[in-house]
């Protein structure tokens, strides 16, 4: 028996909501909403008493949702923004794009560069990792065939 009904979203905790959300908007996501959350509900769910969080929800053209959260209280704890793909934990968010070189170039104009290079898999996919704001690895893939 499966308890999962559907995939809802991925959440990423960030230090600068504006910079990170602008990056994802530049890739083609749209801001679905912005809110602040505090009180008993968030304290219970996160297990952090007295927490306050600002949230931006983004949506891709096909309905994928990405939640960006910034803790106002308590102060956010630093992560490892230079971690490579083999470090345990969530390491990348992946999007299929229509023009991989153009998407990589657009990210580069904002100061975000490839982790490695653009690879090709069995004449079916081109893919690259871009290290975005706050060290978030964004996997961009383009179908070749």
From TrEMBL:
Keyword check for Transmembrane: no
Give the UniProt keywords, A-Z.
Metal-binding
Domain (VOC) spans 6-143
Indicate yes or no for the key word DNA-binding: no
Pfam families membership: Glyoxalase_4
Recorded superkingdom? Bacteria
Name this polypeptide is given: Glyoxalase
């Amino acid at each position: 028996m499966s308890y999962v009904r559907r995939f809802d979203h991925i959440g990423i905790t960030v230090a600068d909501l504006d910079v990170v959300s602008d990056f994802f908007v530049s890739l083609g996501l749209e801001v679905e909403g912005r809110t602040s959350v505090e009180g008993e509900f968030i304290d219970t769910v996160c297990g952090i008493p007295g927490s306050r969080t600002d949230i931006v929800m983004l949506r891709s053209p096909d309905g994928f949702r990405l939640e960006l959260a910034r803790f106002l209280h308590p102060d956010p704890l630093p992560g490892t923004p230079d971690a490579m793909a083999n470090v345990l934990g969530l390491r990348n968010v992946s999007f299929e794009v229509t023009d991989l070189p153009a998407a990589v170039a657009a990210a580069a104009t904002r100061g975000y560069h490839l982790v490695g290079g653009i690879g090709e898999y069995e004449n079916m996919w081109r893919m690259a990792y871009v290290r975005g704001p706050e060290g978030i690895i964004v996997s961009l893939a383009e179908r070749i065939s």
